[in-house]
Structure to design on (386 residues):
């Protein structure tokens, strides 16, 4: 059994979207951030940092027999892909998948959320990414996978959290965002979490 | 053959430190950032984003027969650990290792480099991390590994890049930083890259 702990406007929407796409069964536990449920003693036993998302996977046991408890959306995505999908079939695919997960969660996030980077670093990243992406080809392997999920989820945040950013210089990115928004699994995940 | 592209004050020091610790043979190609060598056409063929570090691993071939080329320090670390160390022996260790890599490269980095986070988010992370770390026990498995490398490298940056941050409320973190600085492989990697 997979139990995902999430909440509004957290990165729980990424693993949720991925599990919806791959038809992976999970139970969603939504915490109320306004009433600080993510800082309750009960949740701090699951993730001492009190951050969402977190995942409990009863199918994977630690040496002491307790279930795997994971935090960090990128690590949760990677684990789901390793265990519950056919995304990763070779060492090269594993390495390139983690490359794009880290690119999305670290490099792209930092470029967006560090104000000084948003001006200079972010447009450069977007320009290169616009040339790297192809709406008809996944980033790794031959099917839509967890690398696409992480990058597209971050691109999907742009019009929501940064509506002032002009995306017209990046037509491929615009096309990717449009296609992403039309995916039923994306709509299910983003509508609630 | 492993070829690591790095340069002063880049995160190339992390994979370099790790390879020194694990006695993994590599060739270091140092680019001069001041003369913009990382933006030369030759390097942009290796990493189109023009960011360091990047790794070429001739031992791992893509479907088209070309060698694996990787960017993102966290993905490089994870790949080195998977292929050239005994750090990762179970699915749980793989998942927890990527959790700590993402924690270091994404969560901890964002908390440090986003000015508004440095005030509020960063002290909270440090307080919890101080309780999670144990200088005598690795973060994952039973030997010093790539999860320790990523977290300790970031902690090691603190006195260098943020000397104004008072670390005395976090004695375990202080002890970890002290021990890290004494490691010969750390000194070799940080002295040059």
């Amino acid at each position: 059994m997979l139990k995902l702990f999430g909440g509004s406007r957290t990165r729980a929407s990424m693993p949720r979207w991925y599990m919806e796409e791959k038809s992976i069964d999970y139970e969603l536990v939504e915490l109320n951030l306004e009433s600080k449920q993510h800082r309750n003693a009960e949740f701090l036993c699951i993730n001492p940092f009190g951050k969402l998302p977190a995942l409990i996977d009863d199918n994977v046991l630690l040496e002491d027999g307790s279930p795997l408890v994971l935090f960090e959306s990128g690590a949760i995505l990677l684990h789901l892909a390793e265990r519950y999908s056919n995304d990763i079939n070779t060492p090269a695919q594993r390495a390139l998948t983690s490359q794009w997960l880290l690119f999305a969660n670290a490099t792209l996030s930092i470029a967006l959320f560090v104000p000084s980077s948003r001006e200079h670093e972010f447009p450069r990243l977007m320009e290169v990414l616009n040339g790297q992406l192809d709406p008809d080809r996944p980033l790794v392997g031959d099917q839509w996978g967890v690398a696409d999920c992480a990058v597209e989820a971050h691109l999907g945040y742009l019009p929501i959290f940064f509506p002032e950013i002009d995306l017209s210089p990046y037509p491929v990115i615009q096309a990717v965002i449009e296609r992403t928004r039309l995916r039923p699994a994306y709509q299910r995940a983003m509508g609630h979490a």
About this structure: The radius of gyration of chain A is 17 Å. Chain A touches chain B at residues 48-51, 60-63, 68, 70-75, 78-79, 82-83, 91-92, 94-96, 98-99, 101-103, 105-107, 109-110, 113-115, 124-125, 128, 131-132 (CB under 8 Å).
